[in-house]
Amino acid sequence: MTTPTIELKPSASPLSDAEREAILASPGFGRHFTDHMVTIKWTEGRGWHDGQLVPYAPLSLDPATMVLHYAQEIFEGLKAYRQPDGSVASFRPDMNAKRFQASARRLGMPELPVETFIEACDVLVQQDASWVPAHGGEESLYLRPFMIATEVGLGVKPANEYLFLVIASPAGAYFPGGVKPVSIWLSEDRVRAVPGGMGDAKTGGNYAASLLAQAEAAEKGCAQVAYLDAVEHKWVEELGGMNLYFVYGNKIITPALTGSLLAGVTRDSLLSVARDLGYESEEGRVSIDQWQADTENGTLTEVFACGTAAVITPVGTVKRSSAEWQHSGGEPGEVTLKLREALLDIQRGIGEDKHGWMHPLG
């Protein structure tokens, strides 16, 4: 695979310091974007080429561009954090790069070399380092690498041209207002993905498939929706955009990867962080009825969701068509908070990075 260099063409008129600082004071999530983006093209017969860092700007696409019709599109999400000494480091970009390759394989797209993925992220963060929030708290710079099919035509086939991009957005808390438990609606009739499908690829279609159930959850007074497996409609899989963990005293369990779940980077990290803190952690299966019964008999003590954007979010109230129950009295659980703080400490550079997850930038 070719590994193109990235030519720097920075903006002549970046946002002023005052305007940027006003945004960083209350960034929200995914609402504001930095001054630049990285683009790399792929063409059949030529491979990867024309890597550039350029001013952030709209894309111009022909109405017949294939991504608009056949959804050959994948993306990633990772974060860069300000460290105590003022430097910047990103969290496990190599794992995101490898998952990006796996998603590309599933959608018949070219695989971007791991080193090129990481370099593209590094170049953007280094150029827009002033957009990385100050050290402390949960603030970070969220990176969104993505790739789309750019061939023009309506024939149904893998495209012969693609565009890879990285954009960045300063991020505050995904759920504003502090660490508050979210309410969950258990969808028993709609599924997110099926075995042999695209559930383990990070592609927009999976998220589009979750939006109707998400709207139904909102009608039930819930913030998130949890999905069951597509075969037996029995086993808990994940939320629309986050993985789930179940806490049984000193043991935590997350649904095993079946091919219809996304292999979350935060999910994987927490299996190790939990062991570091002395907990047993494992992948397994939890049924919807077991979730309800173990909550009622007290053996299931906490449940939380996790993902790059939200980090760790406790689950409070759970609703299904026939019942409703609550975890930890509607408050964040002890284990949930310990795991959350331990992971954030590593990312913020104040906890020991014994697994070598942080990637320092220059």
UniProtKB/TrEMBL annotation:
<dbReference type="InterPro" id="IPR036038">
    <property type="entry name" value="Aminotransferase-like"/>
</dbReference>
<dbReference type="GO" id="GO:0009098">
    <property type="term" value="P:L-leucine biosynthetic process"/>
</dbReference>
<feature type="modified residue" description="N6-(pyridoxal phosphate)lysine">
    <location>
        <position position="202"/>
    </location>
</feature>
<dbReference type="InterPro" id="IPR043131">
    <property type="entry name" value="BCAT-like_N"/>
</dbReference>
<dbReference type="InterPro" id="IPR018300">
    <property type="entry name" value="Aminotrans_IV_CS"/>
</dbReference>
<comment type="pathway">
    <text>Amino-acid biosynthesis; L-isoleucine biosynthesis; L-isoleucine from 2-oxobutanoate: step 4/4.</text>
</comment>
<dbReference type="InterPro" id="IPR033939">
    <property type="entry name" value="BCAT_family"/>
</dbReference>
<keyword id="KW-0028">Amino-acid biosynthesis</keyword>
<dbReference type="GO" id="GO:0052656">
    <property type="term" value="F:L-isoleucine-2-oxoglutarate transaminase activity"/>
</dbReference>
<dbReference type="GO" id="GO:0052655">
    <property type="term" value="F:L-valine-2-oxoglutarate transaminase activity"/>
</dbReference>
<comment type="similarity">
    <text>Belongs to the class-IV pyridoxal-phosphate-dependent aminotransferase family.</text>
</comment>
<dbReference type="GO" id="GO:0009099">
    <property type="term" value="P:L-valine biosynthetic process"/>
</dbReference>
<dbReference type="InterPro" id="IPR043132">
    <property type="entry name" value="BCAT-like_C"/>
</dbReference>
<keyword id="KW-0032">Aminotransferase</keyword>
<dbReference type="GO" id="GO:0009097">
    <property type="term" value="P:isoleucine biosynthetic process"/>
</dbReference>
<dbReference type="Pfam" id="PF01063">
    <property type="entry name" value="Aminotran_4"/>
</dbReference>
<protein>
    <recommendedName>
        <fullName>Branched-chain-amino-acid aminotransferase</fullName>
        <ecNumber>2.6.1.42</ecNumber>
    </recommendedName>
</protein>
<keyword id="KW-0663">Pyridoxal phosphate</keyword>
<dbReference type="InterPro" id="IPR005786">
    <property type="entry name" value="B_amino_transII"/>
</dbReference>
<dbReference type="GO" id="GO:0052654">
    <property type="term" value="F:L-leucine-2-oxoglutarate transaminase activity"/>
</dbReference>
<keyword id="KW-0808">Transferase</keyword>
<dbReference type="InterPro" id="IPR001544">
    <property type="entry name" value="Aminotrans_IV"/>
</dbReference>
<keyword id="KW-0100">Branched-chain amino acid biosynthesis</keyword>
<comment type="pathway">
    <text>Amino-acid biosynthesis; L-valine biosynthesis; L-valine from pyruvate: step 4/4.</text>
</comment>
